[in-house]
Amino acid sequence: MCRKVTTAKLTNTTEIGIWGDCKQTGVFCYLDDCVEGLQEPMQSNFAPPLNLGQDRLIRINQLANSAANIAETPIAKNHIFGPQGVRGRNSENSRLRQVLGYQPEVSLEDGLTDAHAWIEAQVRNN
C-alpha cells in the first residue's frame, strides 16, 4: 500500500488501484516484531502452536487512508474487480502473552511511517 501511495505522490496522481471493495480486514505486524516473536518460542520449552501478530484488525480502506496520511498526499481509491482474498483475519495472542509474556510492540502507524520512508527512498532512486 505504501508503494502505491508513494508512486501516486511522486507522479502527481491521486488514484491507486486496490483489488476488491477494500472492506476486507487484516492485521499487519512490523517485521522486527515478527522476528522477535519467532525467537521467543524457539528459545523456550513451549512446543504447541502460537499465534503471532498484532491483534488490531483494520480494513484495507483504513490502511490506504493511513498510508496516504503518512505520505501527506491525497488519494482516490479505485476498487478493481477481482480476487479479494479472505474477508477478515485477526490474530488472537492471549496464549502468546500468557505463556511467553510477549506481544508485538510497534504500532501500525509507526510501522507504516518507517515503511513509507524506506519505500519512498527506493522509488525515488529507481
Provide a descriptive summary of the structure in words.
- This protein has helices at 2-10, 31-42, 60-71, 94-100, 108-125, and strands at 15-19, 25-26, 58-59, 76-80.
- The longest helix has 18 residues, at 108-125.
- The chain has 126 residues and is mainly α.
- The protein has one domain: Alpha-Beta Complex (UDP-galactose 4-epimerase, domain 1).
- It has five helices and four strands.
- Helix content is 46%, strand content 11%.
- The two termini are 18 Å apart.
- The strands form two sheets. A two-stranded parallel ribbon has the order 1-4. The chain has a two-stranded antiparallel ribbon with strand order 2-3.
- The chain is globular.
Q: State the helix count.
A: 5
* Average predicted confidence as pLDDT: 90
What letter string, H or E per element, gives the SSE order?
A: HEEHEHEHH
Low-confidence residue ranges: none
Largest sheet: 2 strands, parallel
Helix content: 40-55%
**CATH second-level architecture:** Alpha-Beta Complex
Quick one: overall form?
A: globular
**In what range is the share of β-strand residues?**
5-15%
Domain count: the total is 1
Q: CATH homologous superfamily name?
A: UDP-galactose 4-epimerase, domain 1
Radius of gyration: 17 Å
Query: What is the name of the CATH class?
Result: Alpha Beta
Calculate the terminal CA-CA distance, rounded to whole Å: 18 Å
Number of strands: 4
